[in-house]
Write a structure and sequence with these properties.
InterPro entries: Beta-gal/glucu_dom_sf, Galactose-bd-like_sf, GH, GH2_Domain-Containing, Glyco_hydro2_dom5, Glyco_hydro_2_cat, Glyco_hydro_2_N, Ig-like_fold. This is Glycoside hydrolase family 2. This protein is α+β, with helices and mostly antiparallel strands and 881 residues long. It is built from 13 helices and 47 strands. It has five domains: 183 residues, Jelly Rolls (Sandwich), CATH 2.60.120.260; 102 residues, Immunoglobulin-like; 261 residues, TIM Barrel, CATH 3.20.20; 91 residues, Sandwich (Immunoglobulin-like), CATH 2.60.40.10; 107 residues, Immunoglobulins (Immunoglobulin-like), CATH 2.60.40. Helices cover 15% and strands 31% of the residues. It has an eight-stranded parallel β-sheet with strand order 27-26-25-24-31-30-29-28. A six-stranded antiparallel β-sheet has the order 3-2-4-9-6-7, with no helix packed on it. A five-stranded mixed β-sheet has the order 40-47-46-42-44, with no helix packed on it. A hairpin with a 3-residue loop joins β34 and β35. α8 runs parallel beside α10. The termini are far apart.
Length: 881
């Protein structure tokens, strides 16, 4: 049943709540009663996978049988292990109808798509109005310019084609790439309404170092800072006007700390920039450990009345790379190694169609682990991800789309340079941006391109704090600000006078075809592989890839590195997913996550993330658990008490240089024979491992493990971060754990769990992607839940697919959803799908003709893959010891 709605307002006091929105829209946060409205355009799209003929008549578009979906949307749900290009590639269509409210008379209307994957075509009422090449940067459609007026019935249609296309980056065929492009309108969409005199969008304006609001900083210190503001105003009127632009800086509690006004005269149909400077006394500076943020309110007055206003969330800070002296933040040397991870926008089932709240949670999980930097692999990340990095204190390296492919045709470089300029325009105000990576990942491009890419970056950011990075092996590397290389190349970067960083480390395969590695460990493989992975990342006594230990032995000029990779992810060119993540595709941690967490400073306490001392026992006390008890801790010493009787104390073995908190190993301390003896003696409660961490002689962290006994329960937990919003887009992972009566997870259990969802939510995926029923792995079965557009309660139920007399648990958990933060515009909504355990599958019948065709093409793919192997071997040396 369809819900016919014209305009939904989700709460009464909209002005107050809009001011508290967590994520920006088209780079800005709203100002109530400013004359500007930004509507959530995500809900209520029609979707068709495949191609259609489209005529220049909206009545000819029969989308009545198309699926109803909300954005962000992926063209096809995939299993949690769907590597090897099993995802759909080809055209996909979206359509949405709405009526323009008559109260928008005299207003300018535009559609803002954060990204649409691949080659995309945009139609308004059947007429193509724009074509876009590339899948990672915004696209704007000026509805007013194409004749849309208040009262009009409007049909928006979008063709998103993620087929392989060598004319724009990444350019390489997906089945030869180390990630998947998935497809669709996989990021947010907004309808933006302004007056005819307004602050522009930087990407839409297309002006070098201009458009929108551009903020930069000078003379930053604890005593004062100068904030430079460049604002672009557009006059769409048929007559000239004179405006006053007011820039006001507000601190975290809304107190005004600086303000300035300046007038600007604009002729009819023209635009111009206003340059202003604010001086802030005793600024609260942005730093990854103290990510203080300000709100810069830009107000435009016409004839004394407010005609437009936007808020930019900024952080006052300075960054400098001083060659051998390394990184300086706010004029002070950064006293640590800058350790981090790479991150693909990829999640179980939904691919890259990740909602804003999960982007935020990804950053939070990495910040909790103690990381301070993320490299965006290998494209600009979602704007919500950038907002989260600002808020949570996570530096980011923004990379242009590209991966091991160069096309000598001029149009290819033209489109790359366009991407570079647009990613800088989009992300230039984020204090979290540490480096720009304007060159293509692991690609043999010409030196002239490296020079052009560098020039474009600095032209777009002609202010202090702009740094571009490149591989040491790339042509033109010496002309860049920062060079990617391994710590071993000390002579190189000392002679070059460059600060250096390692863009990827940790992976260590047998060869680039088989892809076997002790760094690549699926969580369900259990303790021994997980411990091996963690030790491999920490410190090892064999050759191959870099470790945390080696970074801490490098000089200051080598500032740190980013692990490959934060989370397991799908890949195009190999049937196995990349299993080298610290967490799986549902963000369930492996032991290596806690090993990395143990590297954080125990004396550093953060407001925005978990911090301080920690201790973790990497032993589940199963019959097959290792005899050595491994403990990850950042404490001075650790005491382990086994079975309430054996007390063992160790001080971590530290070297003068190297890993700060090596894993602590208690040799031969665990024996399942002892567990068995206590159980037989009727003393199972004594079976335990307790670990206590000490700082300065005091216990500051404690944890306890016990062996899981008989299966007794299903326990549901919610992997939540921000409060769930009823916007039809937010998602949350719910974990069903098989436990004993005391709640200890039965890690070796393999049960099949059925999920049912009632109320204001729906389950993402069913039998066709092995989402429901879901087989438990390493004792847990995850489910992904999406909210509806109505605030209320989501009830999740879980039970076994095959219950029996001995074990028939059921579990229920409820999640409250809050009203959406933004007004949404839609006519119809998807109806939450009921749980169908044995529904239809999309796999279909086996097509033997298709199999033969694929076999004929196999040799071509083999040849292409050999080229990939050669390229990866070539660039591997920047990541090795």
């Amino acid at each position: 049943m369809k819900k016919i709605l014209l305009l939904i307002i989700f709460w009464a006091c909209i002005g107050v709540l809009q001011a508290q929105e967590h994520f920006s829209a088209a780079s800005f946060y709203p100002v109530p009663n400013s004359g500007r409205e930004v509507l959530d355009f995500n809900p209520g799209w029609r979707f068709h996978r495949g191609d259609i003929p489209l005529k220049a008549d909206p009545l000819q578009l029969d989308d009545s049988k198309w699926e109803l979906v909300n954005l962000p949307h992926t063209v096809q749900l995939v299993p949690s292990e769907a590597s090897g290009s099993r995802n759909y590639q080809g055209p996909a269509w979206y359509s949405k109808r709405f009526t323009v409210d008559t109260r928008y008379q005299g207003k300018r209307l535009s559609l803002y798509f954060e990204a649409v994957m691949g080659k995309s075509s945009f139609y308004i009422n059947g007429y193509k109005v724009k074509e876009h090449f590339g899948g990672f940067l915004p696209v704007s459609i000026d509805l007013t310019a194409v004749g849309v007026r208040p009262g009009d019935e409007v049909t928006v249609a979008v063709c998103a084609d993620n087929s392989d296309d060598p004319s724009f980056p990444p350019g390489r065929k997906q089945y030869t790439m180390d990630f998947c492009v998935f497809g669709g309108i996989y990021r947010d969409c907004y309808l933006i309404c302004t007056g005819d005199v307004y602050v522009s969008d930087a990407n839409e304006a297309g002006q070098v170092a201009g458009g929108g609001v551009f903020v930069s900083y000078e003379d930053v210190s604890d005593q004062k800072a100068r904030v430079n503001v460049k604002t672009h105003i557009v006059n769409d009127r048929e007559s000239g006007c004179r405006v006053v632009v007011e820039s006001t800086l507000l601190d975290a509690v809304g107190k005004q700390v600086a303000s300035t006004r300046k007038s600007l005269s604009l002729s009819a149909g023209s635009d111009g920039h206003v340059m202003q400077q604010l001086t802030v006394r005793n600024p609260s500076l942005w730093h990854p450990d103290t990510p203080n943020l300000y709100r810069l309110r830009t107000s435009v007055y016409l004839n004394g009345k407010l005609c437009d206003a936007v808020v930019s969330r900024i952080g006052i800070r300075s960054i400098e790379f001083r060659g051998a002296d390394g990184l300086y933040i706010n004029g002070k040397p950064f006293g640590d190694k800058l350790m981090g991870v790479n991150r693909h926008q990829d999640y179980a089932y939904i691919g890259n169609a990740v909602p804003n709240n999960l982007h935020w949670l990804d950053v939070k999980k990495m910040r909790d682990a103690g990381f301070r930097i993320i490299r965006s692999a290998h494209y600009p990340q979602d704007p919500a991800f950038m907002d989260a990095c600002d808020e949570l204190g996570m530096f980011i390296i923004v990379a242009t789309p590209g991966w091991q492919y160069w096309n000598p045709e001029p149009v290819f470089e033209e489109r790359i340079l366009s991407d570079i300029r647009n990613m800088v325009r989009r992300d230039r105000n984020h204090p979290s941006v540490l480096l720009w990576e304007p060159v293509l990942n692991e690609t043999a491009f010409p030196e002239s391109f490296a020079q052009n890419a560098y020039r474009a970056t600095h032209e777009e950011y002609p202010a202090p704090g702009c740094y571009a990075a490149i591989d040491d092996k790339s042509k033109g590397a010496m002309g860049y600000d920062v060079v990617y290389t391994a710590p071993k190349n000390e002579a190189f970067y000392r002679n070059a006078g460059k600060s250096c960083f390692t863009r990827e480390y940790g992976d260590c395969v047998d060869d680039w075809n088989s892809h076997n590695s002790y760094s690549r460990v699926a969580r369900e493989w259990g303790e021994e592989p997980q411990i091996r992975q963690a030790q491999h990342y920490a410190r090892k006594d064999y050759g191959g890839s870099l470790t945390v230990d080696q970074f801490y032995k490098s000089p200051r000029g080598h500032i740190g590195g980013a692990l490959w990779h934060s989370f397991d992810h799908q890949r195009g060119y190999h049937p196995d997913p990349f299993w080298g993540g610290l967490m799986d595709m549902f963000r369930q941690p492996k032991y290596s996550y806690y090993m990395m967490m143990s590297q954080r400073d125990p004396h550093l306490h953060l407001e925005q993330a978990d911090s301080g001392p920690m201790v973790y026992i990497a032993n589940a006390m199963t019959p097959f658990s290792p005899e050595d008890i491994v403990v990850y801790t950042n404490c001075d010493s650790v005491r382990v008490i086994v079975n309430e009787k054996d007390t063992l104390v160790q001080v971590p073995l530290l070297e003068e240089k190297g890993i700060r908190h090596p894993p602590v190993v208690f040799k031969g301390a665990y024996s399942f024979v002892d567990v068995r003896a206590l159980h037989r003696a009727g003393k199972p409660e004594q079976c335990s491992i307790v670990a206590e961490g000490f700082l300065d002689g005091k216990i500051v962290a404690r944890t306890k493990n016990m062996p899981s006994k008989r299966n007794e329960q299903l326990v549901l937990t919610v992997d939540s971060g921000l409060p769930l919003r009823a916007n039809g887009s937010d998602m949350v992972t719910v974990i069903a754990s098989i436990t004993d009566k005391d709640g200890y997870v039965k890690r070796l259990s393999q049960e099949t769990v059925i999920f049912e969802v009632e109320g204001e939510g729906e389950l993402v995926g069913g039998r066709e992607v092995e989402a429901n029923p879901r087989v438990s792995r390493w004792g847990t079965a995850p489910a992904l839940i999406r909210t509806t557009t109505k605030a209320g309660t989501i009830k999740i139920k879980a039970r076994l697919l095959h219950p029996g007399i001995q074990f028939h648990p059921q579990a229920v958990i409820e999640i409250a959803t809050l009203p959406a933060e933004r007004v949404a515009l839609y006519r119809e909504l998807p109806v939450p799908q009921k749980t169908e355990i044995f529904g239809k599958t999309e796999v279909g019948e086996i097509d033997f003709n298709e199999i033969e065709r694929l076999a004929r093409e196999e040799q071509e793919r083999i040849n292409e893959m050999k080229q990939v192997e050669q390229q990866q071997r070539h660039f591997e040396s920047t990541e090795k010891k």
